[in-house]
Amino acid sequence: MINEILIHKALANPFRREVLKWLKAPCDYFVQGHFDFTSGVPANAIHARSGLSQSTVSSHIAALIEANLVVSTRVGQWMLVSRNEEVIHAFAAQIKLHL
Q: Rounded to two decimals, what is the model's pTM?
C-alpha cells in the first residue's frame, strides 16, 4: 500500500532523495567493511557520509520509513536500512499513469 502524500512529502527534501540514491547502489557510496549490504546499509554509515548530525539523519530516515520508501531491519546493535523497491516502483508507475 502506498501513501502518495507521505511519499511526496518525503521526496520533497533533497537529502532524502540523495539517501535513496545512495541506497540504490550502496557499494558505490559506502565502504563495505564487515557488512555486505544485502540486508541494508547501517544507519550510522548514512550519518557518516552525510556530515549531518545524527538526530537530523535519524529524522530524515524516519520520514523515509514512514513513507514506506525504505525499510529498517535491526541486526544486533545495528539498524540497517534498505530501499523498498516494491513501493518505489508502484509509486513511479502511478506517477507515469496519472501525470
A: 0.92
